[in-house]
Design brief:
It is built from 14 helices and 4 strands. By secondary structure, the chain is mostly helical. The chain has a two-stranded parallel sheet. Strands 3-4 form a two-stranded antiparallel sheet. It starts with a helix and ends in a 22-residue tail after the last helix.
């Protein structure tokens, strides 16, 4: 499955750049954290559409036929794949690279202690943003009821005034630089990230989601399994190692593990739990609302611009004969319930 390769690639690149791997909570902010959502589009949404088709659509003018990157159901399914496999991918990277230094938003980083005065000035959360790491850009998100409240009560009128009804790519230097707007967009994203950090910290202390299983609980399970498996793998032969890894990873999936599928209402044959189906419906409805409001199309055009600006080498690949371009692959919702 292509998404699995992209998941491994995301972990490897993030580790190499010594940036913080975004949490699932950050990915679920979708376009409200645009640089993180650029990563999602680049690594996962693209994988369910197919690379050659994606590149062709990126280079299609917005008014042309086939200009849209993919249907709502494909985007929802890609988010479900990410949610389902995030921790197995993280486990795979760490166990294949024992000396890795990969840090995620779930890790308690140095300086994250208590809430004393010394901790009020926190360091910025430098989230992995894929190819955008080279551009030093920020992206101002449209002002909506959701974004106006997502950054908390500290967002002042000056910051609010730098945003409009569209996404805006902001540079820190150069002819078209706008340092003030760049800082405001960065501050807005940091406020959202601080809110996510507070949620993860609460889950870490056992205060989250009314006692229900949280994503941080899944991270703890992954870390514990990794700690148990590492010494065993160093002593076992190739076949045993492969079997151990496969068993460990299968138990970490959010929607397709044996534990999840055993719950009432889950599809034992197709392999997806009730929670997985609910997740897809929830995300599908969110994306559908954005499609109806027009904000999804605005985000797609912003993504296309950034993609072409940061990946010049892909432009040449787009200039191929029509016969060489694979037929577009549209995600069938029923595929989601197949065994992964």
């Amino acid at each position: 499955m292509l998404a699995c390769l992209y998941g491994a690639g995301m972990c490897e690149e993030c580790d190499a750049l010594e940036m913080v791997l975004p949490s699932l909570e950050s990915f679920r902010q979708r376009w409200k954290l645009p640089k993180t959502y650029f990563v999602f589009y680049d690594y996962f949404f693209k994988s369910v559409i197919q690379d050659s088709v994606w590149i062709d659509r990126v280079n299609t003018p917005s008014s042309g036929t086939g200009a849209r990157l993919g249907p709502v159901i494909s985007e929802a399914c890609a988010l479900a794949v990410l949610e389902n496999h995030y921790f197995p991918w993280l486990y795979q990277h760490k166990i294949e690279n024992p000396n890795n230094t990969l840090v995620t938003e779930y890790d308690q980083r140095e300086g994250q202690g208590g809430g004393g005065a010394d901790n009020q000035q926190e360091q910025e959360i430098n989230l992995f943003c894929g190819a955008l790491v080279l551009s030093d850009c920020e992206i101002s998100v449209p002002v909506t009821a959701a974004t106006a409240s997502s950054a908390g009560n500290d967002e002042n009128e000056q910051e609010e005034g730098t945003r409009s009804g569209d996404f805006k790519i902001l540079l820190l230097s150069g002819e078209n630089a706008d340092p003030a707007a760049h800082k405001a967009a960065r501050d807005h994203a940091q406020e959202i990230s601080k809110g996510i950090k507070a949620k993860i910290d609460s889950d870490r202390q056992g205060n989250g989601d009314g006692g229900r299983h949280t994503r941080y609980d899944s991270y703890k399970t992954m870390s514990s399994t990794l700690e148990q498996d590492m010494p065993q793998i160093n002593q076992e032969n190739g076949a045993s190692v492969k079997k151990r890894k496969r068993k460990s990873k299968s138990g970490m999936t959010a929607f397709t593990s044996a534990t999840r599928k055993s719950k009432k209402g889950s599809d034992q044959v197709a392999g997806w739990s009730t929670e997985g189906k609910k997740f897809v419906c929830e995300v599908f409805n969110e994306i559908k609302q954005d499609e109806q409001s027009g904000i999804r199309k605005k985000w797609e055009e912003t993504y296309k611009f950034m993609y072409k600006a940061t990946k010049q080498d892909y432009k040449a690949n787009a200039a191929v004969d029509d016969d060489e371009i694979e037929a577009p692959f549209e995600m069938d919702a029923n595929m989601l319930y197949m065994e992964v």
